[in-house]
Fold these 4 entries.
Entry 1:
Amino acid sequence: MPVTAPSFAPATIDTVIEAVEHPAQSVASLVLRRSDGQQFPAWEAGSHIDVHLENGLIRQYSLCSSRQSLSELRIGVLRTPDSRGGSAHVHDALRAGETLRISAPRNNFPLVDSRKYLFLAGGIGITPIIPMLEAVEAAGRQWVLYYGGRSRDTMAFARELEATYGTEKVKIIAEDVEGRLNLQEILGMPRAHMLVYACGPGGMLGAIEDFCMGWPPGVLHTERFVANDLGAGGNTEPFEVELSLTGTTVTVDTHQSILEAVEQAGARVLSSCRAGLCGTCETRIVSGEAEHRDAALTEADKDAGEVMMVCVSRAAAGCSRLVLEL
Amino acid sequence: MSTILHEPAIFTEDPFDPAVIADPYPFLARLREAGSVSYLEATGSYAVAGYEEVYEVLTDFETYSSAGGLGPRDIRKDEAWRPPSILESDPPIHTVMRRALTGVINPGTVRALRGPFTPPAVELTTALAKLQGFDAITDLAEKYPLRVFPDAVGIPEEGREHLLPYGNMVFNAFGPENYIFKQAFAQGDAHAAAVMKSCQRESMDEVGFGAQIWAKVAEGLISEQQATLLVRALLSAGVDTTIFGIGNTLSVLARYPEAWAQLRKNPSMAKFAVDEALRLESPFQKFHRTVAVDTVLGGVKLEAGTKVLVFLGAANRDPRKWGEDADSFSLDRSSSGHVAFGMGLHQCVGQPIARMEMEIVLQQLLERVQTIEPAGAPVPIIHNVLRGFESLPVSITAAR
């Protein structure tokens, strides 16, 4: 019975806070440089870093700087009203010149190549989209961004994006002026060879998922940000998966999906979209608790915890071993 | 991007000729090798048979419209024999119907069916395993979906005998109005009327997919007519294709005894066997799309308004995609990406149900049958677009 040894603890990088800016109401933007003066490792659009806060919390924030300059990284942090210490600590305690420990960039929201793109951002959900825009613009792809928020003064980077790409491509929809994003208008007419990337609060993503049921399977890619800032956030540790049919145990590293890890170990899993959408890779959970990241299961299914989509979902925080019927 | 344009290869052979239908693969290989796009004189349409071109036509729904219908004639120009289905519509008309259907048929709702779908498979395979042989089509493939699927939709018992003849009409109409078509439509009005009656709100039980689709009318997502059409789509697309899927899987496995033995040892592989069998013997072999705007495909100019015949079954055997052994069954192959259920916007919504039905039947048969082999030549069905068998005699030994 092959057992791969867990290679835990993702590499951390010590940084110095170069600047703290406030690009919008309740949003702090941190520019980070490496303490050793080196460059950051190259990263993909959609990536995030773990930020190790002094109060012991670990939080994930999307990178919103340019991938062309690896001498600095930028994150945008929204102060959430019911924060239990994550975003409040970033806003209140962190100052320019202080040090901050982060993880190397990781990507749970990869940009898949396509001929056309539709980007949808709600509020601070704009952050992972920013490097994506840079990437698709450089590749000469056709794209449009709809960025919604309560009012212009709460919408970070809105002006910067308009100035860089123009208002033909960047549609800023402030609720106090134009109302909410009109998803019927935006998504009511599916387009061929167009992928939809959306990041924002749960309610907005739920509505987008509903509209995208009328699109080809697999077009929608989402990242949900945890608005309430409670609990430990997503599991950032590697974990083990035991395949109950063969007794094999594999380690799922932070940069790979369960599907990839078990396929590498030689197990067969039926899969199709590999994006948490089509439901083909649904797998029964024998024991352990999953953190569901798919758009295929209902909330009731997710709560019941009997099955999971192994292409995107992972072990829950605190669960170091999942046993799956594979 | 500069493309060198060239003329399509001209084919005089008729893909809807009964001789070609009975043994389609030599013709399909010639078609694939002739070039990216061919022109079929018999139907006056273009044809694509390579994986790359088939994939392109299926996924570019703006250039290759469904609203002209899946047959060789543009249904918008003729008096259609029935109101257009979800399969015969483009966004945005298609969009709300697709949303409604995806909301009803999803992993959660389908998973709940594994319980009720299993006992009929146990019962059928237990009885068959006591025999020395049986007909895999008439004794099993045709029986099982009719035992489970109409119940899942929630239609009354009365009128179910019209489902198979109706499905036969619907799919044959994706081909030309030839002798095969006319045979299928012999008592067409009676079948169509009976099925339409089964689709009405008052015909539904309270819990099935039909009732859930009708609930989308109450939610304001779709109209009453659209609900009728969606239930009709389930009933016409959900029975025949699954029957053919089960039959075709067994036709393949009867020829591969080593695969059967391997599956007996590891029945969790059943779903991969089904997937690979669907690639090799795809039930839905071909249908048309209509070119919406002048375009170029594989270096051939296609004018707006012309029809393209899309050969799914040929794409699923394209050696450029699947390798030199594309014509053989391999349990080790990853058949992911095959287009047996279509691809893109119109990809089969009922796919998870069909896959589950096929997997359950195969698993139950594997449990009770030690060996299965052909007992005589299978009789192919002469059907315009579906590939399957009228009869598939097999001899078996029961598992101890």
Note: Chain A touches chain B at residues 188-193, 210-211, 213-217, 245, 268, 270-272, 279-280, 282, 296-298, 300-301, 307 (CB under 8 Å).
Entry 2:
Amino acid sequence: MEILMATVIAVLTSCGVYLLLRGRTFPIILGLTLLTYGVNLFIFISGRLNPGSSTIIGVGEQYADPLPQALVLTAIVISFAMTAFVLVLALRARAELGNDHVDGRNSVEDVKS
Amino acid sequence: MSHLAIAPVLIPLLTGILLLLGTGRPLVIQRSISFLSILAQVAVAAALIIGAAGGEITVYALGNWAPPFGIVLVVDRLSALMVFTTVVLAFFSLWYAVRGNDTPADSLHSVVHFLLMGVNGAFLTGDLFNLFVFFEVLLIASYTLLLHGGGAARIKSGLHYVLLNLAGSSLFLLAAAILYGVTGTLNMADMAVKVANATPEQTPLLTAGALLLLVVFGLKAAMVPLYFWLPRAYASASAPVAAMFCIMTKIGLYAIIRVYSLVFGSEAGELANIAQPFLWPLALITLALGATGALAARELRLQIAYLVVVSVGTLLAGIALNNVQALSATLYYLVHSTWICGALFLLADLIMRQRGATADRIITGPAVRQAVKLGGLFFIAAAAIIGMPPLSGFVGKLMILSAAQTDQQTFWLWAILLLASFVMITALSRSGSTLFWRTENRVAKADKADRGALLAVISMLSLALVLSVAGDPVVRFTEALAQQTLTPSLYIDAVLSHETLSGAHTGGAHD
């Protein structure tokens, strides 16, 4: 379970960082989304992995930490709202600058190819 | 228990909602609500400062949950001073904005108040995750403000700003999750206790969390190498927004001071003073690069934005020195630079409106219509920001310089700070002489500067004089503040020994 979670977070984060370093707005936003997925999973497991246990003290022998679950909900809501905002902003930038490059103009390599 | 501590968050929140509902209503209504609210906030912030001046640390437990389990707001000297600096800056920005920058439909007032809610909350909160939430509140407001007025340049720099800050938010969450995973708490006072008693196995993870946080705060504070978003963003924002944004870098600086004096401060055992060795060289590089940028800038607003970077470098150096005298000087300089940079952005807007198509480019153009008045103000503002006597910049810089203790510190700080000041003099006198003296033989067709707007700039600049004339009480306050901040046990004891209200559930037994 630990290895599975760690691998999933690592893949999500590395893909996110790779896409984040691209030059056009759409891959960057996808990258940010993947990165926030990785981060959200990371917050979720910061209360340790306790499969099958409830978040109430006294019900079973083990209980799961409820706080990271509350934190991750907050983080999901915020990142969702931010993604919506940045998508609209990217569309607006595409319309205003006539280009979807983050600098508003194609780089030299883009023009060559 | 007094509810004053939460007022700086609640007042702008309610005002923001009220103004949002009134979008499209006559400006006079929007403006009066906005002004009543900001005046109330100034009054509350002044009351907080007076309350905190004696050294008492007020803890406000939200929902009456006992710390460390609930979220707490903490008012000590540092947070009270930061809130006061913010609302005074906002007051003048709004004052300037009502002289021609706001329209009934664009909800400028409403967004400014949401920004204030986030900023004040970030200064007051005693909880790490809550700090993240307030950061997001102020960021989403700042995204909207930055795009205020539209236009391709704003969209482009706004896109950079938004994307960078979203990546920064992810890092903040990672750091918070690491610290929570190791210490099991998010309350900063409780975390400080846990960090001080950390076992050797926990230390590497805590170090990773602490330094990730430094990256996040460094991005907010515009520290090298994370400042590249700042100059373009500030230079393209509308004037009242750019002035308001002078507080944005200070939020990062505040977070650095708070976290690395409290959680990873002098009493943090193995992790004590973890950030300072990184801060010192980065501060000096920021200082040098900011000054170089100011010299190279071809537009006045871009130049002022680089001056913001210079002030960030100066302040970071003060924080890195990590002694009472240096922190006191840093806080004094922080208040000064926030207000004066704000005034400079407003003044730059007045100047560029009178230069026709040349706008704020530092090239020969038509003569400014009110050259004597605006030129005189520019001279005073430049003297204040460079740090010439008798204005407050001089006092602040002198205090920071004299706070260097070891020979090596003295050597690097004096050399770079004084050289940067010299570069600033060169840059600002070049732009001043080009803007006002090296002009074409005609005057641009422009309206005279609005009296109200001019008065806002003049009163803001006079704060520099107030800060230096009233230097003695201000410095005594910042010294007490530094003493309090660098003794984290005061803060920790105040928060952890906080007693919740008994019998509150039986019905409204407040105070």
Note: Chain B has 20 helices and two strands.
Entry 3:
Amino acid sequence: MHEGASLTHLMMVLVLQLTVILLAAKGFGFVCVRFLRQPSVLGELVAGMIVGPFALGGIALPFLGGEPLFAISSEMVLPVTPQLYGFATVGSVVLLFISGLETDLKTFLRFAGSGSLVGFGGVVCSYFLGALSALAFIPDVVSIFDPRAMFMGIIATATSVGITARILSERRRLSSPEGVTILSAVVFDDVLGIVLLALVIGLVRMGGGEGVDWRLLGRITLKAFGFWIGSTVIGIVLAPRITKGLKELKDLETLAVIAFGLALLLAGLSELAGLAMIIGAYVMGLALSSTDVAEDIRRRLEGLQAFIVPVFFCVMGMLVDFRALGEVFVYGLIYAGLGIFGKLVGCGLPALMLGFNGKGALRIGTGMLPRGEVTLIMAGLGLTTGVIGPSLFGVAVISMLISSLVAPPILLVAFRGGSGFRKTLGEVKSADLKVISFAMPTIHLADFVLSRLLDAFRRADYFPRRVGHRKPVYIAQKDAAQITLLRQDRLIQVNAPSAQEGFVRLLLTEEILALKELFRSVEKVADTDATERNILGDLFG
Amino acid sequence: MRLKKVLNRSSVRVGLPGSTKDEIIREMVGIILADDRDFIKEDILNAVFQREAQMSTGMKNGIAIPHGKVDCVTRLHAAVAVSAEPVDFDCLDGLPAQIFVMTVSPTNQTGPHLQFLAEVSALLADDDFRRRILAAKNEDELLKAFCEGRADA
């Protein structure tokens, strides 16, 4: 930036930067989804790399006084301006808040058995492989307690289930024993990853690294868990009261905004406590996830999410310094390979112990492969706190790109063929799923009916939660019973285990009857056309 | 599993005398009313008949499941009865019905009611079980059949 660059000039640059970011992110995201059948995240990330300061964004522009749009100066910690990074930071809070909201803690606690074993195996295995790889490839790292080693471990742990959930729902395998295990393992993966992150950040901030001070480690562990458990418990106890109070406003819009405000508050507090902001955001989401307005809040944040999340991914792409990438490219490939190996073995072995056969274990391992937003957030955090440099950040991005690209095709192949359960247990279990589907006249109506069905399941003590970020896929769970609801165009499909089939058929019938009743009452309003006449008024004189 | 909790000696009946859908429903509601004095008979009848008007609850294999949702009850109430003679109930298969399962539940709590009906329907899907129900000579036998006869146990 020039000497004495005026505030208006800075803001002008910021606005232009956001313009370029939004257009590029949406454009590349669209290409990724439509033509490459990849999640838009990848497109947004690549867009950032291309328009960023290390590529096109670095070209000097005459109308900006010979400055490039994304100028880098030596005074900056990051290759982007603080004001732009601010948007990305808010984006990461939005992301983590929403992923907390989409978690169902009760479901998670109920499913603590099989899912957590698989999730735990995957986290532990990939953490150590990641940390050990740092030991082998970063010259001056000599201990796995070196902050850099710990960060490379952490970055290797995060799983992003969005891609898996999409593929499995398209293949109608989301409620298969493998699908259910993957979904519950991912929740455990998230929670454990966040706790680990809190731990590592705490250690780094307190200057851990050279030699291990076990007492310090103990104190930080205590603090991390203390903040985590404390705020989660307080949040879960208070959340229903808070939302109950807010519901008095009779305005879900305001409620959603206040809820997001609370997420920002907790994010700030967790930063104050020496943890990372995203931890607070996630905890707030988690606390609200068990309230009945969770889905309403999430829906109302969709607009904000659509704007700010691509900004976040694009900015993350901008942080990739190609010059630093060359020297670590081989490490990046190996790191990605280790990450994949860690998940396959770490998740596959517990799956084998839980009664799956080799095929089932492979499916579960592959389902845990995709990396996404959380990987980037963690890597970005490492970069801003100065723990990892641009080259290690590049390693993380390479690994994220590779595992996201590699996972879907393997997943498709792995899910071909028969049961993933051992014969003795399996045949019944996977042949067990009943599919009930019916079409509605329009997509609009199908959406409306789907939301009514979710309400009906809620009233029947089920806990529906959305699992597809971009596609309408929901899992309603009560104890061990899981029912999947999804809409494909005008078709509504409900998958239920055969033990629940009768219940589901009755529920659907009753709900459709109630809807017909509702439409009949609408027709009564429509019978007299006075309403429309009133509304049209004197429009045509 | 839950049938034992919902059904008791006074909520089952054999030899129900009604010979029309209307009579059967009124007799079944009568059984439910015995559960509690505070129930508003008219509300319950209205709710059940309203549901019948939307779509008949006559299923297949001689089974009908008339039910309704009202605000004057606080939990699920159920009754099971076998009529003396088969009665025309607008069943899906066009045949008359002889086994009747009624539930009355609070408006905002549908889980137990649907669960109960689902469990009863799972039992009644079995030919032998239906024969056992129809052959029950008294209320004790009928109740015993429902409490014992788990389809998947």
Note: Residues 25 and 44 of chain A are 4 Å apart (CA to CA).
Entry 4:
Amino acid sequence: MSDVGKVPDQVRPDPLLICSNPPSLRYGATSSEESADLKFVCGENRMSTSILTEHPVQESRRTIWNSQLLVRLSSLLAFVGVMIYFSLAAPLFLSYSNVLNVVQQSAVLGVLAFGMTTVFISGGAHVISGGIDLSAASNMGLSAAIYASIIQAGGTDWIALPVTLLTGLIIGAVNAGAIVGLKIFPLLATLATMNICAGFELVLTQNTVVPAASPLLTAVAATGSFAVPNIVYIFFCLAFFLIILIEATPFGLRLYAVGGFREAAIAAGIRVNRDVSASYLISGVCGSVAAILSLSLLNGSSPGAGEILLSVVLVALLGVIVSRRSVPTISGTLISSLFIGFLVNGFQLTNVSSYWVNGVQGGLILLVVAGSSFSRRAAY
Amino acid sequence: MIIHRPIAPVILIRPALQMGLALAVVVSLGTTLIAAEETSAAPSPSATAAGNTDTSGLSLQGKKVGITVIGTDHYWDLRAYQGQIDEVKRLGGTPIALDAGRNDSRQVTQIQTLITQKPDVIIEQLGTLTVLEPWLQKIRAAGIPLFTVDTASPSSINDTTSDNFYIGEQLAVQLANDIHGEGNILVFNGFYGVPVCAIRYDELKEVLKFYPKIKIVEPELRDVIPNTVQNAYAQITELLNKYPKGSIAAIWSAWDVPQVGATEAVDTTHRSEIKTYGVDGSPDVVSLIKDPNSAAAAVVAQQPYLIGKTAVDNAARYLAGDHNLPPYTFVPAVLVTKQNAAEAQTFLGQRP
């Protein structure tokens, strides 16, 4: 409750008012979603209780809501259409081994995107001042370089694993310190950390591949029960854990509250700084876990990890489409990371140039950005 | 033109042989270039290849050929990639051509999916061997014949490549000769993990053993991808400020993109006493060498299009039942210097 005092009375909204918005007036909310939405009201309803009774505004909202629904539906249709097309065009597409391949290939991207989604949730959707972790990919590069260097120097997994996870945590903590402590925009703070990580990685690896073979990495790369690669098990276990943590615990609820309406969250007594920091720590650890998966797939650390950053942002943004309330969710991110994996895979199976993937991804970004700009206009 | 021979151990150069060897190279190159000039109606390496390789009777009709390359951003990569695709189509096959955009992770993904697709044969071009080897083994374990381009792997049935021992040695001998066996040299050694670069570098060291007055400046330089030219330019400009005129004799790199940046840096700072050396023979580098005012002194030019084409021909031979292919097929490379750059442009199909 200590944060409450920091908000001047004249700008502090009444939490009761915020939480008492009639569900029918909320964009994207239907009566069937009412109960589900109640826990996110602080996060989604950028309120303006004073205008709730104005009919023209309601009309305008309804139009925007309809447009937004149209964008979301067309995005979902694009998802489904692409999957159906590939399964018809390439008989191998839905084969057991191919599906497992795609999941395995999507794991590194997916794990990084889980971290990105978490900071999206806690930081809000504003393009400049909202939450983002630009250091996610270079964190992975540095963590992988550290793990590989330790193994190269004769160290064991028992040393390399905790040091690597600690690296991710430290990077997360530096981000959190800069954003929460120094009040730097996440975009700029994590841009700085991104460069620091990339620099350290270059120092460690001299921009070369550092091979790494260890019992743990071999075990991660191996195939487990039901011919399912262990990476797939790890990916799904982490997804399950984060879905529970973010979507079904008070901590997750607080993250949505903080990201949706920071002042209201402060007024409601949420320790905003602690929760925002926690989201960056989660993202940091996700970077280290992705590094271990990448190490096992590539038999070492490879330069150029930073290139994956834009795909990570894309996947985390795309996940919004599959959320009923158009908010970032871990489950949405899981689905979108698999979708991107299937897209790349489908292009290869149908012998369409992989260069097209970039164009399709660009189109999807446009759809998502269009959808989220509708959301913002509806919210204000 | 194509030489089949098993891989040789690292060649140890003996001083007594060096002059003879250098002479032989000059003579053989002269002969080659003269021959090339005589048949200079052939405008491109592909045409040259067609005239020198018997591919009659080869067919890939109804065959799917997976082609996976680490990247196509460099002239060499792109020409070898095009050589493969064109030859597969010419022989009636269907190429599944995959460019990993210089990303190890993406290439692994593409290979993994390629294995599921079960093409009749897979050809892999360049990339980092430590990353690739387990996946190349999986290709063989899936019963798919594997051929490689410029990638020496125990999993490959046949690797089509230039003779990089020869390339490394020729470049080093030329360098030592040009600087009269004396002086400090700057060396770009950022890709020792790529086998062909390692061979060229090791050959340089072998040659320099016998030129004790030539010293490699430590620490060695790291060339990078991407922004190779700009990065090399920046590094060399900085070092030229550090080392005064006369203290550096030459700059060596295992490929010719850093050589472009280094040459630019030397030319801009008017340090005409410094000469640059590289490998591959991209058209812009051969042009630089031809320019009498440029610091670019020599490049060993490969024939990437012919290399790619030859790899496909070998794969077609294997699929036709010829299982006695040698593990390596070497496609000749030529040493291009200021003296023969104009002729080399014609021979390499790079006539300006």
Note: Residues 5-52 of chain B have pLDDT under 50 and may be disordered.
